[in-house]
């Protein structure tokens, strides 16, 4: 179930009651006094990185900035990278408890609290979800649709409707990017240092060189999606020639639209 929470409902105190703060996150050290004092050290056992923390922005003045993607495109992974690079929690319109218990403490905060650095969303059309994003500021993460469709739907419901949603995620959010920008998920995996620098620039923060070294040094993987495939599905290509033709055409359409907006990004057909 998805929620959008305003600053008034529910209160931060009620959020604290609903989501227990008792949590163990592997080797991360969690420190709690009140909800805005939550902080943790993602690399507590590394003497070179142990002093770095992730916490909330305290003055409540941070403007909203959407972190948008089609589902299965690395949004949660990117959030984890942003938190470790910036030292600030990220938020979300979804209030996903499964992410909260993995250490994404900004997940339960109001999107417009001013205390998180970016806020996750997938759906452009749900007005309540996108009500806070009125300042035309967003970072769009694009993943190869062949990989994104499989990651999200896990072979079960891939098809023309989903590739249409993949395309529309980009086309509908392009006008709202404003001072943000676009990154390819595959590029971030292949060229972490340069792409992470770009990511911080899009957010509007300076790069802490030592912190960047720690992020690159320590691999981050929040979770793997549960498999719903059966039998030999894992070894079977879910994309027939007709569907591949449709997907390739939509990749070309998105590629052209990106170029028309000044983005020289190469989308792969594979």
UniProtKB/TrEMBL annotation:
UniProt organism field: Daphnia galeata
Recorded family membership: Belongs to the WSCD family.
The protein's name: Sulfotransferase domain-containing protein
SUPFAM superfamilies: P-loop containing nucleoside triphosphate hydrolases
InterPro entries registered for this protein in UniProt: P-loop_NTPase, Sialate-O-sulfotransferase
Top-level taxon: Eukaryota
PANTHER family assigned to the protein according to its UniProt record, in alphabetical order: SULFOTRANSFERASE, WSCD FAMILY MEMBER CG9164
Regions crossing the membrane: none
